[in-house]
Amino acid sequence: MTPVTQLLALPPCPMDRADAVVVPAPIERTVSYGPGTFGGPAAILAASGQVELFDAETGVDFDHAPRIHTDAPLMPADTLEADLAALEAAVRRHRGKFVLTLGGEHTLSLGAAAGLCDDLERLTIVQIDAHADLIDRLDGLALSHGTVMRRLWERGAHLVQIGVRSLSREEFELITAGRRLRTFFAHQLPDRFPEALDLLGRLEGDVYLSIDIDGLDSALVPSTGTPQPDGLSWRQTMALLRAVTAAPRARLLGADLVEFVPSPHPPGCDLTAAKLAVKVLAWWQAGREKLGGAHGTGR
Ligand SMILES: [Mn+2]
Asked: How far away, in angstroms, is 60 Cα from ligand 1 center?
């Protein structure tokens, strides 16, 4: 079987005609528990060939729009810092288009977000995640999947976290202090989910969406490095995507989908991850049509 190099197995779209770009970033250097996220992008692309081009929920037909170009996978460099710099440069080249980065470990959000936005103080990051990723040092490392949002927050980014259910007391105290940080814990979601949707709908300015697949319930996607029970349902995830892509005063610059670990049994999880990647683009397109092209293009 020839490998699928373009999301949805679409015919290659020339870069200058693309509305959206997919950047496969098989970066895996810091792992706490289960390895394998290096294989995420290839498995997601392969499974995306089985996802329908028409999406009834959003009305989006990928045969027509958006036009998507999928980059060649990022080549591994010598260090994590070099990986992130290469990703930042790759993403920067696609500014003005919606950029979806496929991981790989969560640390890559540092490069992907910086590639889309020079001034992180003006950026709001919507983070769907089981973990807060706000640790100062994980296993002595400043750059790690567990510290990524701390580093972005330190550089001035605003954070909205949804689905968090595994964190240290240090992270909890940072969240409680509340500076540029809004966290909707998983245990609060039965009551606070409408509040989360309302907050996303009122976002303003530049926004970046980071989806750690472990934010979804581990019963839905056990194929991730550090799964946690009690996560988001598929329906809740769609509602969040809809809210963030339809926010009338926000400009969604890009997104990432990280920490997926492909597993041979059952391959259904690969398809779930691929469908989630496609849904990000479908909701982005639906929001763009609704808002008259305000999202991601025309900058
Ligand atoms: Mn994470």
From this structure: 29
Q: Is residue 298 part of a domain?
A: no
Query: Which one-letter amino acid corresponds to residue 115?
Result: G
CA of 143 to the centre of ligand 1 (A): 13
Ligand 1 centroid from CA 3, angstroms:
28
CA of 106 to the centre of ligand 1 (A): 5
* Structural domains in the chain (count): 1
**Confidence class for position 267, pLDDT limits 50, 70, 90:** low
Alpha carbon distance 125, 116 (integer Å)? 12
Place of tokens 């015919």: 11
283/262 Cα distance (integer angstroms): 24
Ligand 1 center to 65 CA (angstroms):
30
CATH of the domain at 123: 3.40.800.10
DSSP H helices, 135-267, are 148-154, 169-177, 189-201, 234-245
Give the separation between CA 239 and CA 3, rounded to whole angstroms.
32
pLDDT tens readout for residues 27-41: 999 888 888 999 999
